[in-house]
Batch of 2 targets.
Target 1
Amino acid sequence: MPAPLPSERAFIPFVSVENMMRLVHHVGIETVLVELTDAVEADFRRWDLFDKTPRVASHSHDGVIELMPTSDGAVYSFKYVNGHPKNMAQGLQTVTAFGLLAEVSTGYPVLLTEMTLLTALRTAATSAMAARHLAPANSRRLTLIGNGAQAEFQALAMKAVLGIEEVRLYDIDPRATEKTLRNLAGTGLRLVPCTSAQAAIEGADIITTCTADKQYATILTDNMVGAGVHINAIGGDCPGKTELHRDILLRSDTFVEYPPQTRIEGEIQQMDPDYPVTELWQVVSGRAKGRSSDRQITLFDSVGFAIEDFSALRYVREKLQGTDYFQKLDIIADPDDPRDLFGMLQRAA
Amino acid sequence: MPAPLPSERAFIPFVSVENMMRLVHHVGIETVLVELTDAVEADFRRWDLFDKTPRVASHSHDGVIELMPTSDGAVYSFKYVNGHPKNMAQGLQTVTAFGLLAEVSTGYPVLLTEMTLLTALRTAATSAMAARHLAPANSRRLTLIGNGAQAEFQALAMKAVLGIEEVRLYDIDPRATEKTLRNLAGTGLRLVPCTSAQAAIEGADIITTCTADKQYATILTDNMVGAGVHINAIGGDCPGKTELHRDILLRSDTFVEYPPQTRIEGEIQQMDPDYPVTELWQVVSGRAKGRSSDRQITLFDSVGFAIEDFSALRYVREKLQGTDYFQKLDIIADPDDPRDLFGMLQRAA
């Protein structure tokens, strides 16, 4: 007897890298970034509904593998993501990721997708969302220190969401800056390559640091940072990896995603446990102040949090409706009689 | 310009439910169970090498979704698994699962596979492995209380690994017992359906309880359990779900996988925190005694642990070599220049 076909419930939509790229181009990169920014903001507004836990990290000499679960009570998500700074030397990605959505009521997955690209998009969208609440009014000039895999996504999100017009670029490796210039040509942004971090931050409204080295680094020193700027620090995102001199933190008002995670992984791992921070969701939902003066230095000490991935996953799920940018994967065994798993196996012989 | 093809590293072997069934039949179900038992035992022997953490559970009214990560320093694994007892009423599986292996040195996944079937196989293999160390010598008679999705796997593993000849069956739902009788016909086992748990355990060398209800249940009471038996309790595997009366525990020597997890999830959640247990890996590796007398009641209070999934995943990875029982999934974005993720996206337009 041939194996009976699995039921429709047994097939999970899977978005490959190729299909994710198709989906992004179908919608338009800047539109995706704007819509994702809104999706992330909507979930920050209902932050207290979510199950929150620091990510589950498996550290090794070469890097880290993390699982980042969350749930809003109806839908569960998790992301698998690694961070291996030395991968680049072997021609591999520093960060790769994939993720899943499942129904809380049944535990059945409803979406499996690549998240290397999606993480790059959601990280930029989260930065833009934070900047919408924290950056100086009418910000037009962005500095990008670190011109790696995240750089163009940051530039386009800040352009599409905030109206950034000029991007000043610096990387210790000039080839990274050249790559970024090449990729952003034709986007309408005024691009200014710089030969030092100092030169790059001149006149910046927003400074984004997105370097990849796993070390205590000082990308910015205190004397480089003038009043009124918004710093978006996204490269310092695991224990032993920071980008800013601690004196900058002493002059800044610091906003974070989830303090128990950020105090271990963010820039503030350099500070005492009682260093004051504001949770960004409280700003977004109107419970706390964001920027309160022109002279204030605001710092979004971003390490990435599971709720941002949740937002990105549910956005992709919505956008997939009516498209064929997915395959169906037979990943859930679904016998006719749920107790008859063995019979299903036996009949497949 | 057409999108460049992803490199070989970007493709992850994926084993669907259909391919897992093919692989199992290709090897032979009983051979799989014997080999898996050895694979699990080999990893129990090197237990202290593994990163161990209690699973990360997201509990809801209807069930639980769990992530179970571990690593031996060279290879990382995790399993996604749900437990939703009410699913059965909707015609859905109570437990579904999938899992992944990745290289620790790069964080790159090397295998993605269904694990609903694989979990059923590894759970039975783990039971057989424990029984090999704890059950009375020359055990021939197995009682299965709970004749659901796990029942046949338990029966065949105990037959293939220990030489069990007779299986006595009881379930509160006679249809479950009928299903199990039907599926095990022709396996060479002597099958004895019973109308009560009391009748089922008569003369048993090994009693396996594998019921699914999420509640404090008393499948076995103290007066039912005679001297010398080995109890394999696998249904009590989350907070609020137990199968044995606590008086049985007071007369038994209890063996567990990972105490921090079992004290929350296992039968011993009924006991004081200092209730004595022996870690099974210490028995397997010769550091602690298993069964020490004919009169002793041994209890394997099994809740399932990540290392067992690791064993199952690496076993599947080995067995896939030279077969075509997998698809290749484009789940990892892998641009030629690892910093040029955006360029890869742009060129796919």
Note: Residues 254 and 276 of chain B are 7 Å apart (CA to CA).
Target 2
Amino acid sequence: MKAEIISVGTELLLGHTVNTDAAHVARELSALGVDLLHAHTVGDNAGRLEAALREALERSDLVITTGGLGPTDDDLTKETVARVAAAPLVEHADSLRRLKEYFGTRPMSANQRKQAFLPRGCVAFPNAVGTAPGCAVPLAKGKTVILLPGPPSELLPMLRDSVVPFLQQRTNEVIASFMVRTFGIGEGAAAERIADLTGGANPTAATYATGGEMFVRVTAKAKDAASAASLAAPLVEAVRRRLGDVVYGVNVTGLESVVVPELIRRGLSLATAESCTGGLLAKRITDQPGASAVFGVGLVTYANAAKTRLLGVPEDLLRAQGAVSPEVARSMAANVRARYNSTFGIGITGVAGPDGGTPEKPVGLVYIALSDEKETRLRVMRPQGRYLGREWTRSRAASHALDLLRRRLFGLPSEPD
Amino acid sequence: MKAEIISVGTELLLGHTVNTDAAHVARELSALGVDLLHAHTVGDNAGRLEAALREALERSDLVITTGGLGPTDDDLTKETVARVAAAPLVEHADSLRRLKEYFGTRPMSANQRKQAFLPRGCVAFPNAVGTAPGCAVPLAKGKTVILLPGPPSELLPMLRDSVVPFLQQRTNEVIASFMVRTFGIGEGAAAERIADLTGGANPTAATYATGGEMFVRVTAKAKDAASAASLAAPLVEAVRRRLGDVVYGVNVTGLESVVVPELIRRGLSLATAESCTGGLLAKRITDQPGASAVFGVGLVTYANAAKTRLLGVPEDLLRAQGAVSPEVARSMAANVRARYNSTFGIGITGVAGPDGGTPEKPVGLVYIALSDEKETRLRVMRPQGRYLGREWTRSRAASHALDLLRRRLFGLPSEPD
């Protein structure tokens, strides 16, 4: 099955909103083995939307639109699809009932009520979060247009609960996709190491770099999920072996999603003391549900006085070495561990920029220390040739801390092989 | 000038990467008054890319591609554009020099060297961060194709330093765009309040909702930036007046970008004690450069023992009221302020979910307290009708905390009017 996505919204063409909807829809289509050949974005303009729709329907079997279903006059997707499908909008009883339920005793305007009108003959998809239902509209030649709301909080549950089951009944091929995620290797080096593994047609392997991390995607197509997974498995294993211990997981969401569950599983605990990352490490740890079982205390000690008072970093040391130094990072890690009774302590101190750098301690220099009952390991993150920004530096430093802990937890050497 | 964006990359069509590049490019085009009518995404497939390019060039004066400029065999954009433009790829001396500089003493493969080849007659854009230069390729009938690299860290500086100046010389209309940002009002309510302000053609006003916040975008077109800004200004003011104190800023990046600079300006300080937000509030505060001047200490006290030890929340209180209670939030805020000598203290405690809810204290219930030398204000964030997820709950709770502080700093009532 060939598909296209049409995202509708002037805010997307003005760059006010990043199109995460298209990525969510694309991921689900890929998992269902639907070939997504094009994605388009058009503004809140009925003429251009209609042209894009007609063009997409000529090439593809399935067109999924996102956005333009709301109550305002700008919301034109439903009207446009109804015109293309020659299916007039009619009031949909169940959608009206849900809409009334949503508003309860509050008054409902005519515009709000408009949301209960759907193209005749469609399959309605209830909106679990907001007011505008989605739907699947059947067209001539077995083609289908699926309309989804724009807000991701509404689109995501509808995609999962209605669209995927709807499409599953209509496809007969499945793609299994495995993301082999790494930390500590560049895309060029990784591509070289697995060069001879990337030539196949099914399964396939390809390298990608994003946000300072590099991953290899292995995909396989087959009749069902289990066969596709079996087909991909040997290639996933080969890629893992070839890349070595920079691989931190397959189909995981980030270093924290590997580290936190392992701490939970082994009943270990962690305390953090952050300076330049300012809570980002704690935030990433507590992104994981259940983190409270292993993460009792996180300290953001920006001020030197806080480093001394909360962590017992000696004033002399701060004076002699400066707050950004290997010694202070070590002291932060060792003391946060000892003071707050944790198995591990992490200390991070550095210069996130854009200001505050000196020739000796340039912007981008960060010291990261991990302490356990026996020793304290240190990792130095040096500025790249070019400054990539405060956000990049902070995010990278937090990843280094999680990678250090991962290596300690899984008995790996402190640095990549 | 009419423009289209073509994003190239199979990873986009598989949903592995969110297309932030298109949003960045769109924003710059909008600021330059270039009308972006369509954005497309195609995979790493020369045939489909060529078809999309030819189609876009029929409709538009300018086509900007992102992605597919790297050293791997998948990177086909340059070759495809060269074919469409009938401009063979030739080695570009300055790009080769920069590439050699980048590699230094490391060996450079033939594939890497390929990046110094550009379509004959183009204007090259140096890559300040990575290896692949961008370029602008002139075509017949005064049309232009601009090629940009895919990684945002490479695209962004090239966009700012090369593409914008290149396009500025070629456009004669400018759009001024003002985002009136709010916290504490829904899109429907806001749209009603400004309904009579949204009908104009130039300037225009429209509501948008994203990530739990709602904003109004006001745009105006004129010959130059100053005239466009003057044209928009009265409408911006009218929208602000109509919406009242839920407006926290215009063209700002978030609540923290209003609150932190105000603290800095007035020499005030802040300490935070977070439970369910787990460092997210500290992270958002320290996203702001210069936050160290006002933010000395942030505590993540997940464990009750940490709340008692670091904050002096009485054990009796925790036992009697539970960690998620108005009393504990107030105690956290008042104590973090007093213990760590800050003008303000913030305490957050709640149930972020997905687990840990009870009938009395359901998932999504969060207490947020702000303490100063005189009093402690409390805000209760109750679960929405439907649970929107851990990330949403945490993010929203951190926003509530920043909004409470904003209202205190600017002398506004604790709750929206």
Note: The two ends of chain A are 43 Å apart (CA to CA).
